[in-house]
Amino acid sequence: RIRFTQHALDRIADYPIWVAPGGTIFEVSESTCRHLEYSREELLSMSIFEIDATLDPNNMGKSRNELLQEWDPYKQGDSFILLARHRTKSGREIPVEISLSFVTFEGVDYQCSFCRDISERKRMEESLYMTQVSVDRSADMIHWADPEGRFVYANQAMADALGYTLEELRELHVWDTVPEITPENFVERWSKAAGQPALLHEGSGLTKDGREFPVEVRTSIVEFGGRSMAVSVARDISERKAAEEKLQRAQYALDHMADYVIWFDVAGRIAEVSETACRQLGFSREELLSMTAE
Q1: DSSP bridge partners of 215
Q2: CA–CA separation, 232 vs 110, rounded Å?
Q3: Residues 244, 251: contact at Cβ < 8 Å?
Q4: What are the C-alpha distances in Å from 11 to residues 46, 80, 90, 107?
Q5: Which residues touch 193 (CB under 8 Å, ≥6 apart)?
Q6: CA distances from 202 to 179, 180, 218, 238 (A)
Q7: What confidence tens digit (pLDDT) does each residue in 214-245 have?
Q8: What is the pTM of this model?
């Protein structure tokens, strides 16, 4: 039975470290050696202060009795979890989650630690955090809605654009902020978006004070936590619409003025013409665009 236990300890992903009073490493497994890149003999000649980068190195000079007194508050009750950083022989530091308990063997108290490398978890947490920060601080309006049309999440840009607080938005439905959506047509729109690539369309946003403004929206249905969610990214296109209307008015004026306008590129080819030019010269727009100044 003891051999089976040792075999398991040598091969588990987590690695154990037994620490004797005073901080000296009393016992390790093969798994510990693999993770920390030391031989068993090297580790047994070291103290935990040389391994754990989060421990105060000044404790190395403390007496055995002083360290035992510092252990006392932790010796009551079950094991507890703490986070630390272990330093390998090559100098690399790895984040670890430690399940630590105190055991008494032949009248001596030992620290028994099972250490788990959480490097991948840390990378995932950092990646998720960066993604969340990017979404929270995006200039675009981003929200998640559930199949009942309730807002599950909205970013600050959406709250600012619509004039609500984030708390108020969480109490609303999609149709409270999108004029063209109603409780009746919401299900139909959801069904249309489900199973399709992200749909890009233009619509309107409705602010708290009743003002409407044009938006370009990209919506997709995703599965999250066993539920379907609608994820929408909306962009205020008021300035673009205003610029388009201005260009349309200018084009209308050029097409109906008495004089006619012809644009040439640097090579002398006709790049654009007005409707007036077509009427005056007797050519279609396509014919003129295929011609040169000559």
Answers
A1: 203, 236
A2: 56
A3: no
A4: 22, 23, 22, 29
A5: 199, 219, 220, 221, 230
A6: 12, 11, 9, 11
A7: 999 999 998 887 889 999 999 999 999 888 88
A8: 0.58
